[in-house]
From TrEMBL:
Record's catalysed reaction(s): tRNA(Phe) + L-phenylalanine + ATP = L-phenylalanyl-tRNA(Phe) + AMP + diphosphate + H(+)
Cofactor binding: number and manner: Binds 2 magnesium ions per tetramer.
Key words, A-Z: Aminoacyl-tRNA synthetase, ATP-binding, Cytoplasm, Ligase, Magnesium, Metal-binding, Nucleotide-binding, Protein biosynthesis
Gene Ontology MF terms in the entry: phenylalanine-tRNA ligase activity
Enzyme Commission designation: 6.1.1.20
UniProt binding sites for Mg(2+): E271
Official protein name in the record: Phenylalanine--tRNA ligase alpha subunit
Compartments (UniProt record): Cytoplasm
Transmembrane regions: none
Subunit structure: Tetramer of two alpha and two beta subunits.
EC top class, as a word: ligase
Species, as recorded: Curvibacter microcysteis
Cofactor(s) required for function per UniProt: Mg(2+)
Domain of life: Bacteria
Amino acid sequence: MNELDALVDSARQGFEQAATPADLENAKAVFLGKSGRITELMKGLASLSIDEKKARGAVINQAKQAIEAALNARRQALADAELDAQLKAEALDVSLPGRQAGQGGLHPVSLTLERIEGIFGSMGFDVAQGPEIESDWFNFTALNTPEDHPARSMHDTFYVEGGSAKAPNLLRTHTSPMQIRHAVQHVNSHRALLDAGETMPEIRVIAPGRTYRVDSDATHSPMFHQCEGLWIGANVSFKDLKVVFTDFCRTFFESDDLVLRFRPSFFPFTEPSAEIDIQFQSGPLAGRWLEVAGSGQVHPNVVRNMGLDPEKYIGFAFGMGPDRLTMLRYGVNDLRLFFDGDIRFLSQFQ
Ligand code: DAH
């Protein structure tokens, strides 16, 4: 092997051993740099004759080109290797399952409220919503519960700021104020008919929502739900209440095997008044009377506060506890579970 072939060979080896682009640049300097081996050889040409220069120059040039080719090949190899390593490091496993967005669902009490609205909706009842901060007038006075009435002490009321000493604001203790609010709105929207001495369309409404009392144990929560019902017309009787409510309970619990009992009771806004108890004839709750609602024929004073003549309009109202209905339907024994927000409990209803 001549001297130049040996030089090209040692350059190839030097480049081959360079493990990084920086090493490679150092190796390049040894052969192709300003004071590198090829430059030295070129300098040696100066002392040669013209013909010798031509011949010698040509072979040195060949050697130089061979070294440059080896350098470029190694550069490319190192760049390829780096890209390979990067691709491996950043590899995506497209067969991995995706991250799932957790599926939400309705709260069990919301499911019950939807059910209640659906069932009463099918019987022609509207659904009304009203404020949770209520005035003393709508919550008590208009419902035939004057200031000094003992019935006010039946409710442990949260009072809130605003209003006056005589007419304080409070968190509604029941959904019954919606009877007045909705009826007054209904009456106002049929004012022309009433003024003409004609009969207005019946009021048929339910009003579900949150209610508040100072109370907390396994069956009471300071925030709980109620659903009010009201049906007022020229000729609505207690019999209608029985039919409607029996139908509701049997549909809600999906059981014809269920009996109702209307037990005499007292509420200031109804006369007569009744607690409604239900009894399953089969299943885990069979044989026990379970209280599900208060009800009664709307008191004449309340009908008057709705803006109607109690000699012409009559009807019934009821108020039930959707939380309790949910407990009965699903066999839950502690009301607080509904409001603790524990996803392990809540996800069971999806
Ligand atoms: N508001 C009553 C309560 O919270 C429940 C109730 C009883 C509502 C009789 C009514 C009714 O509409 O007629 O205890």
